[in-house]
Amino acid sequence: MISEPPNAPQTATRTSEASNLLMPAARAQAEVARLLAEPLPPGLYLVATPIGNLADITLRALSVLARADIIYCEDTRHSLTLTAHFGITTHLAPYHEHNGARERPKIMDSLADGRRVALISDAGTPLISDPGYKLVREAVAAGHKVESLPGPSAALVALTVSGLPTDAFFFAGFLPTKTAARRARIMELQQVPSTLIFFEAPSRVADTIGDLAQVLGARPAALARELTKRFETIERGSLDALAAAGSAREPRGEYVILVSPPVAREITDELIEEQLAEALETQTLRDASKVIAADLGVPKSRVYDLGLKLRAAIRSSFAAPDDVS
Ligand code: SAM
Q1: 290: part of which helix (H) or strand (E)?
Q2: Would you say residue 148 has pLDDT above 50?
Q3: Please, where are the H alpha helices in the chain?
Q4: Are the C-beta atoms of residues 265 and 207 closer than 8 Å to each other?
Q5: 200 CA from centroid of ligand 1 (Å)
Q6: Predicted confidence band of residue 291 (pLDDT cuts 50, 70, 90)
């Protein structure tokens, strides 16, 4: 009689656990092999790449990058890290804001010759605060196939992890670097009824959060740093609390700033008249209407009409004693 060793069931469980873990790898390999065996049609391929964690590459991204005739990227040395990591040997060529005008005609010629051109950026989704829009516009106008291979984008990764409303969001890219222009842009955005998403350079994060707090008040906000990387951190709190914590923050790494939408409030005629009464002491009706309308998010004509009535009421109240005499 053969007796079972005491640890046999455990060994069997471990073996089946290990093979369960290997199964996705085998399936992924088979899927890439299947994609690689298909011919890649001519066209422009916009390929999203990881924003930090190389394992976030998609199987389709790998298969297109491997089969393309050429990969355009912002910085060839930077993108070589990605392609070398996955054993992709496709030629890399630079396409960025400084050579775009010169390179575009050449890329358009390649597309006209039936070549397969891939476009990637340093990280994330090309065209999102990255080069590519003009190229896509020209390729579309010329009737070439343009295909987007979806993948990571810091804006969406940050939004989903922020804890802020996701039903409507407004991606505002980078704010202007000069203080006055930055504050003016934030004022333009203050009535947008959506979560606001900004990219920001580490050296400017503190100033930008300070300006956001000053213009938008203590709205709930989040600051996402080094997403998908080893030192990913998400700070959540009101804008003024995030601004106050600024000095303790490392001015290094990559940041996305998110701000929740304004609280919806009913804009009554009385509220507008109150603001008009104060503003008309120092401003013309035209200027006051413009500022109040932008501030409250109501049409300028509504504020202007109420201002006319208010002014008429003030005049008639001053005129009353004369009329009586
Ligand atoms: N196209 C890219 C995308 O879709 O994510 C964004 C390119 S934009 C030039 C670079 C900015 O994206 C950074 O300054 C930062 O604001 C944000 N970003 C990129 N990677 C990030 C990461 N891992 N964590 C946080 N923010 C990131």
Answers
A1: helix 285-296
A2: yes
A3: 8-37, 59-67, 76-85, 100-112, 133-141, 154-162, 179-189, 205-216, 239-244, 269-279, 285-296, 300-324
A4: no
A5: 8
A6: confident
Q: Is residue 235 part of a domain?
A: yes
Q: Residue 153: CB within 6 Å of ligand 1?
A: yes
Q: What is the pLDDT of residues 33-45, one digit of tens each?
A: 999 999 999 999 9
Q: Give the residue from 217, 238, 259 where a domain finishes.
A: 259
Per the structure, the complete domain to which residue 233 belongs is given by: 155-259
Q: How far is the CA of 154 from the centre of ligand 1 (A)?
A: 5
CA of 170 to the centre of ligand 1 (A): 16
Clarify whether residues 115 and 51 are in a common domain: yes
* 182: pLDDT strictly greater than 60: yes
Q: Is the pLDDT of residue 67 over 90?
A: yes
> Interior CA angle at 112 toward 110 and 115, to 5°?
50
- The whole-number pLDDT of residue 2 equals 37
**How many structural domains is the chain composed of?**
3
Instruction: Output the domain CATH number for residue 169.
Output: 3.30.950.10
- DSSP letter at 98 equals T
* Ligand 1 atom at minimum distance from 226 CA: 24
Last residue of a domain, one of 218, 235, 259: 259
The pick from 120, 256, 258 for probing ligand 1's pocket by mutation, whose C-beta has the most ligand atoms within 8 angstroms, reads 256
Question: Is 5 within a domain?
Answer: no
Are the beta carbons of 119 and 45 closer than 8 angstroms? yes
pLDDT bin (cut points 50, 70, 90) of residue 3 is: very low
pLDDT for res 316: 83
* pLDDT for the residue 296: 76
115 with 72: CB under 8 angstroms?
no
Cα(254) to centroid(ligand 1), Å: 6
Asked if the structure places residue 24 within a domain, the reply is: no
43 plus 137 within the same structural domain: yes
| Structure confidence by residue, pLDDT tens digits, 76-93 | 999 999 999 999 999 999
